[in-house]
Design a protein that fits this description.
94 residues, alpha+beta, two-stranded antiparallel sheet, two-stranded antiparallel ribbon
Length: 94
C-alpha cells in the first residue's frame, strides 16, 4: 500500500531544482575558480592542435609563470602551482 501525502508547498521541489541549476551555472561560468576535485582545484583550459603541436593554455590567476610546474607522464598532463597568499593589510588603531 502506498501513502500519498498532499504537499503543503507543491512548488518547493521545483524551487530547489531552480536553485540547483542556478548554482551549477554560477560555479561553471560566473566563478569557475570554485571547480574542485578532491583537494585539487580544476581550471578552465583552451586546448587546440596546430600542424606540429598540441597547445594547452591555462589561466592560473595569482600564480607566477615561473612557479608553475608542468609534467607529462604517459598520457597525463599535470599543471601545478600555488597562488600567492593574499596580502595582509594592517588597520589603523582608533
Amino acid at each position: 500500500m502506498t501513502l500519498i501525502r498532499p504537499s503543503s508547498a507543491p512548488f518547493r521541489d521545483l524551487l530547489s531544482l531552480r536553485q540547483a541549476m542556478d548554482r551549477l551555472f554560477e560555479e561553471s561560468f560566473v566563478n569557475p575558480r570554485t571547480w574542485t576535485w578532491g583537494e585539487h582545484q580544476l581550471v578552465a583550459l583552451d586546448v587546440y592542435a596546430t600542424d606540429e603541436d598540441l597547445v594547452v593554455e591555462a589561466n592560473l590567476p595569482g600564480v607566477k609563470p615561473e612557479e608553475v610546474d608542468i609534467t607529462v607522464e604517459g598520457n597525463t598532463l599535470t599543471i601545478a602551482g600555488r597562488p600567492a597568499p593574499p596580502a595582509r593589510t594592517r588597520r589603523a588603531r582608533p
